[in-house]
Amino acid sequence: IIIRGNVTAGKSTTSHELAKVLPGWIFIDSWKIKEMFEPLNLKDRTVLKNSSKKAMFLIMKEVIRYLGINIIIQESTQKSVRKYLKNDLKKYNYKLYSFFLDIDLKDAIKRDIQREKPTMGLGKSFKWEKVQPDKEDFVIHTGKHNINEVVNIILKQVKEKRKKHPKA
Description:
alpha/beta, 5 strands, 12% strand, globular
């Protein structure tokens, strides 16, 4: 499952919630990989972005090859996943599902204000650049749904049922 979308649309919240109700799936969080570099205070974050992406795909390869479990990721596209994992996806019969979480600017601002650590930089000069879904993305407007509803929509699309996670 690929979760992508606009700032504050609920990508992380949705990914974490999916991992809670899908025992036997793993959430590979590219942001956790990026956080390892935070103490360095890098001005040029290109290395950070490239390294975390490569690390995520390497971890995905290992999970597919040696654990054979399903994966939840964020901030990627079907195109890039296919590029890096094409042979493994085919060999191990993995199917990709891509969900684009969309949100209106008004709702995005409201959510950003409620965050402990705002990401949009309200009060500063910030230009919101709305990301657009790819044609293969299933679009979910998260401003119109709560987190439970968003998770249920995804579960229905991937034909999975909510399960009790032993560590939830």
